[in-house]
Amino acid sequence: MAETTPSSNSGLLELMHIIERLKTTKRAGWVRLGAQAPESISDHMYRMAMLAMLSEKDADLDISKCVMLALVHDFAEAEVGDITPHDGVSREEKHRRESSAIEKFTTELLPPQSIPSQRLKSLWLEYEEGQTREAKFVKDLVGLPF
């Protein structure tokens, strides 16, 4: 088990406070459409994780990894918000902002060489790059009209 220090514990606590925003930030698309009870970013991430877990996909797919990818795919939005095409932010700029948020989480708030830090960064990058079967599957789930 990795050794924890007061500074790493305070960083983890700060990260938990930042993550709290995912529960209270409503998804921008639903707000813009005037949905009566728009889901939060956290609601969305949880739903995607449950869809992944309950999937009947073939045995070649690592469902546990799919669940983790679903849980981290919008993680950076805790820091940058739910940026949509309607915001006039380029894809490149959105990616830059989200990358900066993940970098902050994994180098400033978590010990950079820790397993949790490396896991978070690796999973987020895998989803963003969309090259693995698992990342492609989760991206397909995210695209479902819920």
TrEMBL record:
Gene3D superfamilies: Hypothetical protein af1432. Its EC number is 3.1.3.89. The keyword Metal-binding applies. GO terms for biological process: deoxyribonucleoside monophosphate catabolic process. Residues 41-146 form the HD domain. Belongs to the HDDC2 family. This is 5'-deoxynucleotidase. It comes from Puccinia graminis f. sp. tritici (strain CRL 75-36-700-3 / race SCCL) (Black stem rust fungus). The lineage of its organism: Eukaryota, Fungi, Dikarya, Basidiomycota, Pucciniomycotina.
